[in-house]
Amino acid sequence: MRKPLVAALLSALLLGAGTVPAVAASGSGAHTASSTAAPASAGKSAASAGRSVAPAPAPAPAGVRAVGFAGTVALSNCSGSVVRTPTALPTDPALVLSNGHCLETGFPAAGQVLVNRASTRSFTLLNAAGTGVGTLRASKIAYGTMTDTDISLYQLTRTYAQIESSYGIKALELSATHPVAGTAITVASGYWKRTYTCAVDGFVYRLKEGAWTWKDSVRYTSACQTIGGTSGSPVIDNATGKVIAVNNTGNEDGQRCTDNNPCEVDANGTVTVRKGINYAQQTYGIVPCVGPGSVIDLNRSGCALPKP
Fold it and tell me: What is this structure's pTM?
């Protein structure tokens, strides 16, 4: 995960609000505010650091879908998005996707999986321009883990139809297929209201950061310089508009396999460190695990998410 958001904000304040870079959250130290830090105060500090002055997304080239902020959300310490599976019904309770390290309960331990935990967490829903248009509230943490992947799924108190009726905003669709290297992507941070555009550089057999290990992670090309607070941002395929991953970490200092400095481990055990490179966790594996009514069913056919 990226450095705790609190640290990122302190650096920004010392340098001056005008120099705040595009932000992303990462794995254990991921581009997220540490879930163990005081979320409320972190959110306020972010606002004073220039959270509202992020530029609107640049126009997309001809033939390429423009990616804005519609459907993204801001958490108290991270970014996220309202997502649906390809077969979700308008009457199903909506789901919010973010990182496991963004949970209000703190970082899950290696091997820990949370399912159906009560939560009343709130999320600020954004429109295409990055303006907050309403507040959504969770009914529970449907799923959360930092084992094999780094994801959290909140079930909301409103359905997809109710959200669209109230705000005119549709959920982002989760792609049901493995992403492809070379795909042009946008990382859309609801927390910072900033987008990062680059491409999928490749896939990492194992990405290790501190106590956590993630499988088949997405590696970005160097153009996506995400920072703290962008943790949990949806990674969107520019051509389809579908979510293919969730932004979660980056190697900040060139260290080897430490917090905020994930390392790549190949199938032979060879370790590679890429300073300044950022990563995400694929999301196509979520799709088989979501049943009717947005229920997370880890026993469904094709579901390979870690179980408690």
Answer: 0.84
